[in-house]
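User: Please run a holo structure prediction.
Assistant: Happy to. Please share the sequence and the ligand.
User: Here you go; the ligand is beta-D-galactopyranose.
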Amino acid sequence: MNSRTTAADYVEDVSPGRGALPPRARYASSDAVSLSLNGGWRLRLSATADAEDDSFAAPGYDAGDWAQVSVPGHWVLQGDGAFGAPAYTNHLYPFPVDPPYVPTENPTGDHLRVFDLPEDWPAPAGGDDAVLRFDGVESCARVWLNGTDIGEFKGSRLPHELAVGALLKPAGNVLAVRVHQWSAGSYLEDQDQWWLPGIFRDVTLLHRPAGCAGDFFVHASYDHVTGEGTLRVDSEAEGRVTVPELGIDVATGEPVTLPVVPWSAETPRLYDGVLATAGERVPLRVGFRTVALEDGLIKVNGKAVLFKGVNRHEWHPERGRALDADTMREDVLLMKRHNVNAVRTSHYPPHPAFLDLCDEYGLWVVDECDLETHGFVEQDWRDNPTDDERWTPALLDRAARMVERDKNHPSVVMWSLGNEAGTGRGLTAMADWIHSRDPARPVHYEGDHDCRDTDVYSRMYLPHTEVERAARGLDGGSLRRRQLPLILCEYAHAMGNGPGGIADYQALFERYDRLQGGFVWEWIDHGVRHPELGYAYGGDFGEELHDGNFVCDGLLFPDRTPSPGLTEYKKVIEPVRIEAGDADGTVRLTNRYDFADLSHLEFEFCHQVDGLPAGAHRLTVPPLAPGESAEVKLPEAPDGGGAEVQWSVRALLAEDGPWAGRGHEVAWAQGMVARRAPLPAATGVRPCVDGDRITLGPAVFDARTGVVRTIAGVGVRDLRLDVWRATTDNDDGAPWQSDTRYGLLWRELGLHRMRHRLVAVETDDDALVVRTRVAPAGREMGLRTAYRWTSDGTHVRLTVSVVPEGDWQVPLPRLGVRFGLDASSTDAVFWFGGGDEAYPDTRAASRDLLWDASIEDLQTPYVRPQENGARADVRWAELGGLRIEGEPEFWFTARPWTTERLDAARHLTDLVPGDTVWVNLDHAQHGIGSQSCGPGPLPQYALWAEPAEFSFVFSAQPSSG
Ligand code: GAL
């Protein structure tokens, strides 16, 4: 049989590559020179792996007519579409599953860069005194320097170094890199993200002087019983280790034990040190901490920690996974400012600079290997590389490249084998190797439900009930698994509006020791900036296979603006719990940090009268130790005299800190002191029928339909019952969900096209009553709805009564009224109630105050438009000349387009404000849940169709006269 062999056979070879040096610790030398090769490179793109020969790699080749791209970068995100396009799939391979083969159509980018050595580059000492380091190339690269083939490698988000000392010239060095989009390595890189080829991380030439440090391993442990740390630096090259602040000066390999301040994510104490070998000095940042599995819990420095984490993919809306230093810092600062204490580097080791930031600012890191083979699930995991020994060298190579690069980071507290790669011998081999190389860190992998290879029982998207069962030890599983803590490496799927129910998860995490928290999926929406669409998602580039906006499921919008989900998460995981105390007029404060006391915080207190803060005071709170509580007496509350009185306490940073300034709020709470008086009955005035109009106090109605036309002279359009919302990603649910997906059912039943049959328009001595039946075509069930209007001459009160009829098997999306106001006179809204977007199970961060916002500001820009922007607990709102008070409090939403337009839009750019502002006043909303990849709303947040009655009192907006 003949087989086709080409110069590009290595592309489909399962081996990790040829020519790369053994992996080693990542460090920046103090004195060895280096040269960044980032910048403009020449690019020639071809359609297949072997379309061009390697003559371009030879010195003297004229690439003058090639395009220019930036390195680091992905070529598909450069050149305005001239170099192909990104493609998004969740778990399906975008090519036939035929391992290790990849399509003949294999976009291949030949990259060229000519460079001179800087003047201070030491004269060649012969041999390997220089290495060329690639921090990340997707997915397979072959490298030539000055015409010599020096190797090829796979493992996109892992470093590779090649020895080049013997090849360097003082000037005119030609570096040629051929990058193939697809390779055997692609089978190991099936993460849920955009497929983005290119040299997307730094390229650096490093001088390696004789006697350089090479590889070294900093072991810095902490004994919480003695308060002492032990430092030992094992180094390939002998030398001395100094930490001046601690008076340490020891030989490499020699341990030293002495009192230290330990490192934790809350108190990231680092000691500057130096490793000096014969050939170079290497700065060290030493953090003393011990991670151990003890009593079935992951403990750091003797304490079980609670992970309040996020899953972070690397993402920038223009540069993809080519992240700059500022973006990485912004991620860390945003995490710290939102009370996040942990990050899983889903699903590959991040740019190394990110881990430096985690050490410095303090985040627990689960460092995950660049491995996912999820697409094999489609064939019941047949041929899965993680259970096929031919691939094991590649898996071990990936594990080693991660561990060796990142082992000296105190922030890394767990290694993760990868994600969604099935089970198999290859994974066991990785775990065994990691355990032996670094016994001081637990190993994580979610796919190992029996915990054969892992030190923590990890699951994703478990419903609350199952989390609780596991917490109580009722979930079964292997003995080993039952002896391990449970963490949710992914939960609370933040796609679109949501996630709902995180407060309920957190309550479980805090209640049960076995639960050590979780990591919200995920940190940021991977929207791609697009000239026409705003942000593009799957399918927007004409992909043959794609998973739509499933790639936009983050707590940050693509431009890193926090979404309401992040505000909610910040509140839910706040490190100080503030609640009403047992005694009247007191609050109880609980320190929920694992390590820090509260001395870095100051507390601000005020009473709010009808939402207006009445003077702020300092509240003296003892510097509680972790886990401690104290009850603190509040100053006397003012007499509201019928007004609503609330207390408010805020915990603020007392000093400027590394990640936020003094006054930054870390926790807050409000509580009720006196409720507002009931609204005026608004009765006494008779409806007056006058031809085709009915007048009732300040309101005028159409006598035939009973529909209100004006209130206090303000035109009101189409006021009627509304139950529909533009379904959220969580309403629609994921296709594989076995639970009922209400978003689909609602649409199937026709809740988006309810008809309003007028039954009667009745007037009596003090009321106008309009009776209707609201129901969808083709169905028997409906909502008998009565609108009862009364007035005292100045106010008009609407009481809506709803009685469901027929067999309602589904909850309602919402229940309330909607109407339109003239957009030209409705640009600002004032209200008393919750300030941020909230729904029944996303309302922890809803803070009652007086607010004002433009209509535009009230919209939450979910990348795929959907229901958004409701404000909870609104007592009153003023807009467009009207004041609206609610009894009880209501959910307020206003938008410059209809719900139907919102529902139909695919991108934000599809939404254009019209001449009407549409206002929803809702008595109730259905919860949000997390069903886009997890459980739906908990039963207590479902809005079942039941008899309901609610009122709104309308009058002229005072400020508009
Ligand atoms: C998980 C997976 C993630 C992501 C998420 C859904 O199964 O590990 O990578 O796909 O689901 O957004």
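The first strand starts at residue 17 and ends at 18.
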